[in-house]
Structure formats: structure tokens, C-alpha cells
Amino acid sequence: MSPGHYLALSAILFTIGAVGVLVRRNAIVVFMCVELMLNATNLAFVSFSRMHGNLDGQIIAFFVMVVAAAEVVVGLAIIMTIFRTRRSSSVDDANLLKY
Amino acid sequence: MTAANLTADHVTVLAQVADKQSGEPFFFWLLAIVSTFAALGMIFMRKAVHSALLLAVVMLCLAALYAIEGAPFLAFVQVIVYTGAVLMLFLFVLMLVGVSSTDSLVETIRGQRLWAAVAGIGFLVLLAVGLGNAAIGNSAGLKQANAEGNVMGLARLLFSKYVFAFEATSALLITAALGAMVLAHRERTTPKPTQKDLSTRRFLAGAAGVHPGPLPGPGTYARHNAVDMPALLPDGTPSELSVNPVIAARTDTASRHADLYGDTETEALEQDVAAVKAATEEAEDASAGPREVKEAGK
């Protein structure tokens, strides 16, 4: 199969994730949409790796996964801290990080 | 037709035949459709848990796609790290925040959804135009790169060309772990109450009229053992303390003693009271016997 198909799927998933970030207001769901976008880029990297016939793309996708895992840990901890003080996980309510 | 042309044609035909034989198009279209619909569902589901589960579907589909594309190592990492760890972390946090939390459908910014959809479609068109203009040839395939095995190939690159990035990753992971600990840690503003403090507090409250001991269990002295049946005290009065306050507030005590025999509520309550009294007397008789024997034995 042509890499174009995979890239198109990756573009569609990325766009869906981006629209989700714009539309949803629950911070956790917004975060999940960001994860979807990261996954979509990973698919593009893997397709490029296959297209060029070397493994560099897969290495980059691997690093993206590592960074995403670190990001999830810190991001969810922040969301939990905000929830503990605000009793809400809506992105509309969190406009001050301090209080 | 020149010989070069012929061979080029042959190569494409051979590639197409190999494609069809491997079943790749079938799996690609299946996974693509499933993952796209799951991703759309993830956006449109109101409950966050449903979104999380649909995200798991998308991630599993992507893992299968990686496996098809000659990246078995990444496919497994995707399942283990994303579906296994990251998504479970999401679910943990969702459970802590409350599973039943749903997004309200009121738009706080006017026309937010419409403009988001417009922006999404515009962005998709932009990407499509970019991809359409790019010269995407046939894929070279990973046969040569994966000759030693995918993991070996990745390891060779990771520990030679990308070794600095790999080391930087370790620093990133340690920082993330530390950050999570700092963020999750809560400073106590008051000292933690000891067992002694709790006991003192309970008896001080008892002086103000609150029962200091444990509350009676529901239905303890009644004929029923359902949680909404109040316990009957030895003198026959139902004890409101024995029922969950939510249930106690909802119904009248007498109506809860109405049962299936068609009695009126007061009749049922009287029957229950009589049964309790009889049981109490029986118990007293039974305990009176052995005690006398014991005393006689002394």
C-alpha cells in the first residue's frame, strides 16, 4: 500500500484530535485529544520510516512516546491538583493557577 | 515500449500483487475505519469514561497498523505504554475526579463548536493539499532495514546515532517523576490527629448528646435484615440511628415495616415489635439457664 493512505489516516486522526481540543471542556478529555494527536503523528513517522526504508522514523516515534508518557504523568498530576482545590476539572474554571 | 519501462511496470505490478497477497489493504481499511469512527466518538461522547475507552480502541488500532507497517517493536510499545500505562492513568484520574462527571452542553463561547468544526475542516483541507502536492512514491519497504530484526535495527540506531537524545530522555523521565511527586504531595496545614485526639473528640461530642459508640446495624432486632429496615430497640421502638440518614429522610419508619403479607403499616410494625419482644424473652430465658449452672459450678 502507498504511504499516502497512512498519511491521510494520520492527518484525519490529527484533525479530529485538534477539533476535540477546541471543543471539549473537561480538562481530562482535552488531554486525551492531545494524546490522539501525538498518536497520529507517530503513525506518520512510522509511515515515513517505511517509505524511506530506514528506521529513523521509528526511533523518532519511540521518543515521541517517551515524551508523551512523561507529559501525561505531569499533566494529570496538575489536573488532579487543580481538581483538589477547585472541585472541578473544567478548563473554564481554571484561569488562575495559584489559588 | 523500452526495456526500462517494462521493468518499471513489472515492479509496480509485482508490488501490487504482493500487496494483495499480504492482505494489507483489507486490514488497513478495516483499522482505518474503526479508528476514525472511534476517534470521532471520543469527541462526541459526553461521558469522559466513554471517551477514554474509545481512545483505547484508537490506540489498539494504531498498534495493529504499526505491526502491519513493519514496526513490531513500536506496536508492542504502543500496547504496553499507551494502552497499558497511559490510558490506565487516565482512567485512574477519571475515577478520582468522578466517573459520572459529564460535560455540560452549554457553550461558554458563542459559536465555539461551529468555528471549531470550520477550523478542523480547513486544517484537514490544508493537510490534504500538502500531502497531495508532496511526491509520495512507493514505499521502499523495511526488508533491508529489518534484516537483523526490528529490535536489533532500532537498538543499533538508538545507541549510536541517537544516544545523546536517549540520555536526555532519562533526565526527562526523572524530572517527570519528580514533578508528579511534587504536584501530588499535599502540605498538611494542621498536624495529623492521633488516635488519642480522635477518641477525645468523640467523647466530647458524646457529652453534647451524640452517641459515642458505634451505631446499631439496620434490622438487628427486626424480622428483616434489609438495609432500609430500622432496628427495633428492646422496648420495641424503631431506632432511626440504625438506618442510613438518606433512607431515613426519604420514608416514614412505619411504612418501612409494611411487608408482603398485606398488613397495614401499623399492623406490620406491631407484629415486628411483638416478634422482637418474644425473641428477647427467649434469649433471656436461654441465657438465664447456663448462667445458673455456672454459678452452681462455682
TrEMBL record, chain A:
Annotated localization: Cell membrane; Membrane
A GO BP entry: ATP synthesis coupled electron transport
Major location (coarse): membrane
A cellular-component GO term for this protein: plasma membrane
GO MF annotations, alphabetized: NADH dehydrogenase (quinone) (non-electrogenic) activity; quinone binding
Catalytic activity: a quinone + NADH + 5 H(+)(in) = a quinol + NAD(+) + 4 H(+)(out)
UniProt-listed Enzyme Commission number(s): 7.1.1.-
Keywords: Cell membrane, Membrane, NAD, Oxidoreductase, Quinone, Translocase, Transmembrane, Transmembrane helix, Transport
UniProt function note: NDH-1 shuttles electrons from NADH, via FMN and iron-sulfur (Fe-S) centers, to quinones in the respiratory chain. The immediate electron acceptor for the enzyme in this species is believed to be a menaquinone. Couples the redox reaction to proton translocation (for every two electrons transferred, four hydrogen ions are translocated across the cytoplasmic membrane), and thus conserves the redox energy in a proton gradient.
Family: Belongs to the complex I subunit 4L family.
Quaternary structure note: NDH-1 is composed of 14 different subunits. Subunits NuoA, H, J, K, L, M, N constitute the membrane sector of the complex.
Protein name from the UniProt record: NADH-quinone oxidoreductase subunit K
Organism in which the protein naturally occurs: Actinomadura barringtoniae
